[in-house]
């Protein structure tokens, strides 16, 4: 997976587009946010097999279980690695890398650290337990 030349401005555009957007399953949940960031950075959408296939927690869980994934972390790791990302120590992450929290929430590494979104669409800094390098 390689980063496109315009990845920094493309990532900024995606992050700004999510600011204040409420959490909606299948549209603006943590997986959509992370995948849209990865797509902006690399041109590869790791969520492509799932887009349009769920609209709630139950549907998202069913899609993961169908592929034998038991957690968001397991699903994200597998799909990101299929797309070309590689696992890294979260302390080595740089802007645009993806992480997952202990609560199974996906986050993106930005200048202030890993950022996730709450249900109201507000960003917050959070520690992550696993991370993947995007490009």
Description:
- It is a single chain.
- The protein is α+β, with helices and mostly antiparallel strands.
- 35% of the residues lie in helices and 17% in strands.
- It contains four helices and six strands, in the order H-H-H-H-E-E-E-E-E-E.
- It has helices at residues 7-18, 30-42, 57-66, 72-83; strands spanning 86-88, 98-100, 106-110, 113-117, 123-125, 130-133.
- It has a six-stranded antiparallel beta sheet with strand order 1-6-2-3-4-5, with helices on one face.
- A hairpin with a 2-residue loop joins strand 3 (106-110) and strand 4.
- Helix 1 (7-18) runs antiparallel to helix 2.
- The protein is globular.
- The model has no long low-confidence stretch (mean pLDDT 94).
Question: How is this fold's topology laid out?
Answer:
Elements: H1 7-18, H2 30-42, H3 57-66, H4 72-83, E1 86-88, E2 98-100, E3 106-110, E4 113-117, E5 123-125, E6 130-133
Helix pairs in contact: 1-2
């Amino acid at each position: 997976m390689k980063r496109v030349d315009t990845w920094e401005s493309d990532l900024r555009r995606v992050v700004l587009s999510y600011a204040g957007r409420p959490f909606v399953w299948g549209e603006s949940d943590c997986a959509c946010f992370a995948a849209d960031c990865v797509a902006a950075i690399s041109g590869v959408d790791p969520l492509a097999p799932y887009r349009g296939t769920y609209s709630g927690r139950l549907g998202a869980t069913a899609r993961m279980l169908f592929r034998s994934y038991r957690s968001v972390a397991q699903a994200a790791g597998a799909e990101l690695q299929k797309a070309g990302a590689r696992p890294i120590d979260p302390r080595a992450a740089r802007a645009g890398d993806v992480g997952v929290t202990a609560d199974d929430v996906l986050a993106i590494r930005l200048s202030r650290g890993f950022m996730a979104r709450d249900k109201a669409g507000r960003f917050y800094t959070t520690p992550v337990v696993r991370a993947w390098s995007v490009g």
